[in-house]
Design brief:
75 residues; alpha+beta; two-stranded antiparallel sheet; 6-blade_b-propeller_TolB-like; MRJP/yellow-related; glycoprotein; secreted; signal
Length: 75
């Protein structure tokens, strides 16, 4: 039984390794939707928003929505 399970796991890993992922979207910096341009410029000026410090670490898809998690590890 254990041998069959190991063979099955090997076949699954082999099959998944042959699947090529296609890049659909890419970006260099994450941007936020501020209520107006003044608020965004103020956040940039004061350091409340530093776009280069935003590192997306998780992406989940639910129905037709995409959720990106960006933890606040830095300012």
């Amino acid at each position: 039984m254990a041998a069959k399970f190991l063979v099955f796991c090997g076949l699954v890993s082999l099959a998944s390794a042959t699947i090529k992922l296609q890049e659909m979207f890419s970006w260099n910096v994450v941007d936020w939707n501020y209520p107006d341009q003044f608020s965004k410029q103020q956040a940039l000026r004061t350091g409340a928003l530093i776009p280069e410090n935003a590192l997306p670490v998780g992406i989940e898809r639910w129905r037709n929505k995409l959720f990106v998690s960006v933890p606040r590890w830095r300012s």
